[in-house]
Specification:
The structure holds two protein chains of two kinds. By secondary structure, chain A is mainly beta. Helices cover 0% and strands 52% of the residues of chain A. In chain A, a hairpin with a 3-residue loop joins strand 4 and strand 5 (42-50). Chain A is globular, with a radius of gyration of 13 Å. The termini of chain A are far apart. Chain B is mainly β. Chain B contains no helices and eleven strands. Chain B has strands at residues 4-7, 10-14, 19-25, 30-38, 44-51, 56-59, 62-67, 72-77, 86-94, 99-100, 104-109. In chain B, strands 2, 4, 5, 9, 10 and 11 form a six-stranded mixed β-sheet that branches. In chain B, strands 1-3-8-7-6 form a five-stranded antiparallel β-sheet, with no helix packed on it. Chain B is globular. Classes of the chains: A mainly beta, B mainly beta. The interface between A and B is medium-sized, with 29 and 26 residues.
Chain lengths: 116, 110
């Protein structure tokens, strides 16, 4: 069974550009969550999608957005990139909502974004 | 707002030692507590998940316990091996957004 796949693995962008990251969840999983990981702030929750609907959102500016398609694949978009957006962006998939007690999250390898 | 703290931040031990990693959380109204392992530059690998109704979970040399009343969870690693070297993170799940600790960086030297 294939795991969570994130593409691309590495990205280099310049300030002001926008970027789109992709996440393909484990087959049968309907929930996709996105996280940002930096040395300064650690792992922070961005948002969660379930059946194409955003269920939960962390404390990030509106430049960060996402969507989920009918096949559960998800994309995350960051517009008007800033230097501080340099981070490892992780995607996690699960069978159900993150608020379900027995719900295990499975993570992808991440996309390393560098903003110059 | 939930806050998750992990102590110690770093740990270096010789092979064969039994270890205890600590995770504390401020809001005891959690649904679950999940432990992950992260290797450098990689994603997270789920190790154990303890539901709020459970007290502990075991997998091989790993045992995780949960005490909601005191806001604590511990991850016990028996007979540590160099391959256990990684960063270990805990995450609390509840009615709020998933919240992670900053992790414990573990080095097990031969």
């Amino acid at each position: 069974k294939a795991g969570v796949t994130q593409t691309p693995r590495y990205l280099i962008k310049t300030r002001g550009q926008q970027v789109t990251l992709s996440c393909s969840p484990i087959s049968g999983h309907r929930s996709v969550s996105w996280y940002q990981q930096t040395p300064g702030q650690g792992l922070q929750f961005l948002f969660e999608y379930f059946s194409e609907t955003q269920r939960n959102k962390g404390n990030f500016p509106g430049r960060f957005s996402g969507r989920q398609f009918s096949n559960s694949r998800s994309e995350m978009n960051v517009s008007t990139l800033e230097l501080g957006d340099s981070a490892l962006y992780l995607c996690a998939s699960s069978l159900s909502y993150t608020t379900i007690a027995k719900n295990i999250q499975y993570f992808g390898a991440g996309t390393r974004l560098s903003v110059l | 707002k939930q806050e998750v703290t992990q102590i110690p931040a770093a740990l270096s031990v010789p092979e064969g030692e039994n270890l205890v990693l600590n995770c504390s959380f401020t809001d005891s109204a959690i649904y679950n507590l999940q432990w992950f392992r992260q290797d450098p530059g990689k994603g997270l690998t789920s190790l154990l998940l303890i539901q709020s109704s459970q007290r502990e979970q075991t997998s091989g040399r790993l045992n995780a316990s949960l005490d909601k009343s005191s806001g604590r969870s511990t991850l016990y690693i028996a007979a540590s091996q160099p391959g256990d070297s990684a960063t270990y993170l805990c995450s609390s799940g509840g009615s709020y957004i998933p919240t992670f600790g900053r992790g414990t960086s573990l080095i097990v030297h031969p």
